[in-house]
Amino acid sequence: MSAVPESEIPADVPELEPREGQQVRYTTCYMCACRCGIKVTLENGRVRFIQGNPDHPVNRGVLCAKGNAGIMKQYSRAKLRAPLRRKPGSERGAGEFEEISWEEALDELTERLRRIRAEDPKKLAYFTGRDQMQALTGLWASQFGTINWAAHGGFCSVNMATAGLYTLGHAFWEFGDPDWERTRYFVLWGTAEDHASNPFKRGIDQVKRNGGRFVAVNPVRTGYQAVADEWVPIRPGTDGMLAMALGHCLLRDGQFDWAYLVRYTNAPQLVVQTPGEPGDGLILRDEDGAPLVWDLEQEACVDGRQAEIAPALFGAYTAPDGRPVKTAMTLLAERYLDAAYAPERAAEVCGIPAADIERLAAELAHVAFEEAIEVPCEWTDWAGRKHDRFIGRPVSMHAMRGVSAHSNGFQAARAIHTLQLLLGSVEVPGGHRAKPPYPRPVPPPARPARETAPDTPLGGSPLGFPVAPEDLVVDAAGEPLRIDKAFSWQAPLSAHGKMHTVITNAVAGDPYPIDTLMLFMANMAWNSAMNTAQIQELLCAKDEQGAYRLPYLVVSDAFHSETVQFADLVLPDTTYLERYDCISMLDRPISEPDGPADAIRQPILEPEGDVRPWQEVMIELGARLGLPAFTNDDGSPRYAGYNDFIVHYERAPGIGFLAGWRGADGDKPLRGEPNPQQWQRYIDNGAFFKYELPLSQQFYKFANKGYLEWAHEVGFIGAAEPIVMALYAEPLQRFRLAGQGLYDGPAPPDATDAERIAAYCDPLPLFYQPLEERRIEADGHPAYPFHAVTQRPMTMYHAWDSQNAWLRQILAQNHLYMNRARGEALGLADGDWVWVESHNGRIRAQLRLMEGTQADTVWSWNGMGKQAGIWGLEPGAPEATRGFLVNHLIDDRLPAREGEKPLSNSDPVTGQAAWYDLRVRVYKAAPEEQGSAYPPSPTFRPPPGVENGPLALLRYATHRARELRRSLRDTLTRGGWQ
Length: 978
Ligand code: SF4
Description:
It holds the Pfam family Molydop_binding. Its main location: other. By secondary structure, this protein is α/β, with parallel strands linked by helices. It has 25 helices and 32 strands. Helix content is 23%, strand content 16%. β21, α14 and β22 form a beta-alpha-beta unit. The chain is globular and about 80 Å long. Bound molecules: iron/sulfur cluster (SF4). The site of iron/sulfur cluster has 13 residues, from α1.
């Protein structure tokens, strides 16, 4: 850990401007999800500039355009400035608001929530966006007693996260990273600019400087793909097929890490082979539940958890009870070596030549096995065996958006992890490394809460990881209990909930009507909805008596978003520079593979207007409602506010929201009693905490005795036992058996659910055509020859910054991008306005032709189109007149089939929103239609306190610059530039 001065400019930096009146404060950026450490220089109480914190583990000083432009977020015209209530008698969505006091707002909300809690707590649905405080909101929901809580993960990347947690015990991004320092071959599947931003810039730079190879698999060549050594222009939705074809080549050629698979995965475990009978496909276990393997020396089935045995990796055997069994690896090889996954077949599906697939597989194998590396270091494995080095397979991968956003994304991500396991490149030097508190047991042991009762907290978290049909959140008839239908037969492993279905389900009363929807930082009436126009209509839908079908909508946000416009009650949040916050290890960690880390935010500026951090509001509401975690026995508030809560709340003895400087004297890292000085210790250390593992614990964490014992001591895992990675995902087979009518327990309530569960809950990776695409083709819709996807620009985080005067100057209009040759063949020219039509509607957009787009794909930047008057935008703003939103074309339900219940347009295993399954056709707009986007945006009236109109402030400085003529030589030699 390094000490960073809080408010002093180091003396050895030449002064290039007057420093009197300047102060430096350290905090954490929130202009995207990356959570870089920043160093904010203040001058006379205003931000002079923002720099990256060179000591911070996430970004090591790197700052991106968004991070720099955080200044202008403070000067956004869209900032909300006071609590607002929809004017009595006005229509929802009309934007008729009146300012009210916080006391009035909280009284109104408390009264309503108290009534809901006393009657039926699940009538409150509480969903949050990219908020980074899910540990607190989840605790609050659990204490309130509603199972209807989740964050935005169901429409973000739950496919990636769940596939990883059910396979490796960790995953990509927040769960694990490439070993940038040592990797020699890095494969990036899909887009990563939005989440893994600055760390990937540093990482890719490091790989290239070390002479490594960077391969980018993506239908679009922008961002990171533009600097890749090889661009693999894949057809959207076919990544799983490519990963399996690569696995096919590795298995066919014997290029896999036999010893690694035997030691660290369930590949040698025996799987029962009795098709059509109960128990088929489950792991063979002894009476104590131990998984059995075939020991080659004893020639018998033995407990696979023992160290000194010789398990067979391949083979078919007979169990002691006479049932036929095969090793999981044998089943995997049979699946992968089928002609359905041969390179020639994959070439047809993915649009990548078979020879390239063969070459890529050979390159992966060559680097993994011929360029293996060693890190000399004594370490002890779980069985007590000593080793003098770590063996490394220097191949690493990353996948997130792209792969995730398809209805086959869970199995695609499983296929990518399987590829990593075949290469033996997980948690090894040069490979993909877990970030503590990961890895966790496969899957993590938490199950989702199901039972609710008036005035009663839940028995656990509303979210978790089902391993069998008994864990589903369904009623006795098998019907969903959650408003989003998460953890139901329609999405059994929906570990992050299904936020994208909430409004549609709630308005339809399916599975039941709710009373109040509370949203925090989630723009569900615009770019976070799959079917934007319909969602706006649904929010205003009334019943026969003229009452809103969704009776009450509460929105907390710092800015005037499209969703705020529909709220009944608006609670204005602060910006990230105006509040305390914690980036907790109980939540979405910022750890690195070499050790756990967390961070804080501290107020740099005074909040403007009558705004309050949502964190403080949560604590106060918890106390007002008498939720046990937030009140004393006598009903008085337990905490003086958010800071007090963060310091004193303990999830388990010694474990709290912040892991640094615990213990009364602040001398206990990770676990210890509360330390009243904890916030100050973070501030003194540059707003972050990092614990560096000794080298002997940095690799093979899943089987590393030293690491496992330490991880158990600090509460990361429940027992210091090895974590066995799952090549074969047995929980999925339990669901599949239920779908086949062969499970001794709960069963799907109807044929549709049964058929889907049986087809997609496969314990081995498989590839299938995305669901909507398949239905559109089979149902005889007109031809939609193009896949339509979105990408993330480096300069905008989704829809967050169309209010930001600096970032708008970089990007204020999105275009529809198409492959140049394909566009010209269609008679389209660069700059044409075109219609883009799906089975769900059509939009008009301006076309750009470019070489770096796969021939069957069109794409655009995500979330750029906006509604006029929202986000402080003037009526003629490019975002509202020339920008467009692809979401208008997407449906949140699959095309209907007669006699079938409505099905969400989601991955059938995890419920992940299938945004990228969209198919469209593109044709030129008529001459009179050229020049503007469709649908046109009405101009909305801003609420009290919010301005819109032409931007008044484009430039910003706290004083006139003095070094305008400074030469590069001077900068480099005299310094002062960092
Ligand atoms: S990558 Fe994200 S968190 Fe980091 S500086 Fe840029 S906007 Fe801020």
